[in-house]
Amino acid sequence: MGRRSLAEVMATGTPDSQARFGQSVKGLLTEKVNTCGTDVIALTKQVLKGSRSSELLGQAARNMVLQEDAILHSEDSLRKMAIITTHLQYQQEAIQKNVEQSSNLQDQLNHLLK
User: Fold this and answer.
1) CB neighbours of 17 closer than 8 A, spacing ≥ 6?
2) Contacting residues for 20 by C-beta, under 8 A, at least 6 apart
3) Could you tell me which of 51, 64, 89, 112 has the fewest CB atoms within 10 Å of its CB?
4) Host H or E run for residue 25
5) CA dist., res. 79 & res. 87, Å (int)
């Protein structure tokens, strides 16, 4: 016995068998619709999670940029401090030389005045 089409079953069946068939089809369709509804809800949750993940990734990227800026600023500050330190060392050396020269001049003056 081959499979019959829906039209054949509907045409040859009794009103009672047609009603049972209709209820069966309705039940299957309802089940499929409910399954699709559940799938849509699950998919929506995944999309929302993905959106949240994307938001978190964006925040992480912004934080990385801020950290990079802070590192570059720190490196710049260190270079400036190194330049200032070198300048202060030169000034200290110049002051030391002036002190030595003053001491020598004072010694020479004291020797001349004796």
Assistant:
1) 9
2) none
3) 112
4) helix 15-113
5) 12
